[in-house]
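We read letters as residues; the integers encode the fold. Take this protein.
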Amino acid sequence: MRRTRVFGFSFLVVLPLLAGCASVIPDSGSRPATTAPAPSQPTTAPRPYQPRPSESGGVAAKPIPATPRAPFPAAAVPTDATTAAASGILAGPDFATLGVTADQAATALAAFRISCPSVQRRADVSGLTQGADWAESCNAAKNWSDSAAAAFFTRYFGTVQIGAGTAFVTGYYEPEIAGSRDRRPGYDIPIYRRPADLVDVDLGLFSDELKDKKIRGRVEGSNLVQYYDRAAIESGALDGRGLEIAYAADAAEFFFLQVQGSGRLRLPDGGIMRIGYDTQNGRGYVGIGKLLLDRGELQRGQASMQGILDYLRADPVRGAAVMNENPSWVFFREITGPGPLGAMGLPVTGRASVAADPKYVPLGAPVFLSLDRAEPNGLWIAQDTGGAIKGANRFDSFWGAGEDARAIAGGMAARGSALLLLPRASIARLIPAR
């Protein structure tokens, strides 16, 4: 969804660098990327923020500890590796030995069926699969009984470890906030569609050295300049252009909906309007949780989504200034069909879909996670991507909508190991000795 998405909440403390005259597009998919310039140092030492008992940003779910399966010993990953195939592939155990529950397997099979039309057409940039490899399992999935889902994955898939196999998993969800289709008292925070003057430029058309690099900006006279940042948009840069598709009631809640990349608006009449990621202004993403931690305004245990919401609401003026330090702005469109949609253009499934880096995981592939938190352990389907979800064995778990999803996703940060499930035709080609 961070195509409708953004990734999990670890992005709040992620701090890579991004620079450019017209911003390099942080991520080509649905969710904003977690890129940021180094934070400026405060001129005075701030006092740590202490939330009041009455403030309510929700409560993160208490982690359920688990003992992860250790990755298999593997050769060092080449320093120039940029794909799964180049990172090293080890044969894993039979799926039947992994201990996936019947319910997990059934939910994953239902999600896998959704991916099948796309997975057979997509070019797999990971170097692991070819479109034809998926034909056998996708044909079988059409009529396979959910009650025997574990047998399906055992029969049609083998497991592999990519590189060191060491996994890190965050969480995201589909937020629901108060909103209105029209502006009215209490609903005055505009939610914009993509502006016509927002231009995408593929730099690879101009230089082979810039292949796969894009920038996004606007034309001013004869120059391409950066698009308006969050502060400019909040100050009215887009007023009067008829771009509003709805209005939110709470600025901090809308800020986090932008981070997630999609969500639901709970309308005054009780109806629901679903909105999804359309594009982003091209500005680098700044994780405000990282800024507040570095400045000492939040303590380490407060930098969850819930803790940051409390901080923003405690002083709305101060909160608005902090949010404006993230120059990224997400534009939305209304979603009227099934959703939310992932990077494959297909609906993602709560507690079954993960975001992954397509250079290391074929989108549509099943993934087995064994982590130090019990909640995300088991079988998932890679159906999304995210700006912060980069590299081998890096995943963002999607938990659906509602308070439970919000509580789990808001504090998810789990470590352990990961295995990919690949069609047996792929396994035979990649690991002939097997």
Observations:
- The mean pLDDT is 87.
